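Action item from last week, closing it out:
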Amino acid sequence: MMWKLALIVPAILLAGPLAAIALGVVDVTRPWHVGHRNPAGLAPDPAATSETVIQVYAARTLGWRGAFGLHTWIAIKLRDAQEYTVYEVIGWRQYRGLPVFVAHNRAPDGYWFGNRPWIVSELRGANADAAMRRVLDAIDSYPHKDNYRMWPGPNSNSFTAHVGRLVPELAMDLPATALGKDYLGLTTVFAPSPSGTGYQFSLFGALGVMAARREGLEVNFLGFTFGVDPSAPALKLPGLGRIGPAASSS
């Protein structure tokens, strides 16, 4: 019986990522140096938009890792500012002896090495003004700025989830493929969901359960997320992410 489970469990966990490759959702053959970082046209032009903008983006990671997970980041444009500041955690910087947490002025909606991003959450105008101070405080309070671990965290998704928990106005429904979003640290096992509309129990980001109005019901097993969103409705599967209508913004 045990040997059957040893075969069945990996097959279930890997089915989604392998399907993502087979269906062409992820290109595992493109080298990193040919993946462009051009803007995707999703961010308001600072030259034409004076209002405050807060956006959370996600894009598949490069190569085979993209079959399993995403990279997420936060882009902020202050009122009347002429450029965005992007806050993100980048794992490869650790291998070069550089800080993994960065705040820099790059295209907020830039492709992630050839992979098109999409907007996970957005606040603009008065709503962004009201939340800005707490967003910046949440970014500043992220406790793992000097630490990165691709699995089960802390990583880029652990960072954005941390901000979402402290600023529920963002209603941050991070995708099921955002591995690391459930990492709460080594001493915390119970916390609000990243959207702030429910709660989750998580052991080191590798085992847990979440119930929230925004995310629905999610089960985390070894960092892989299985879930259902009754409000849409939709399934959430490893590798493939959300299957069904987009989540409601309410």
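Closing note: The chain has four helices and twelve strands.
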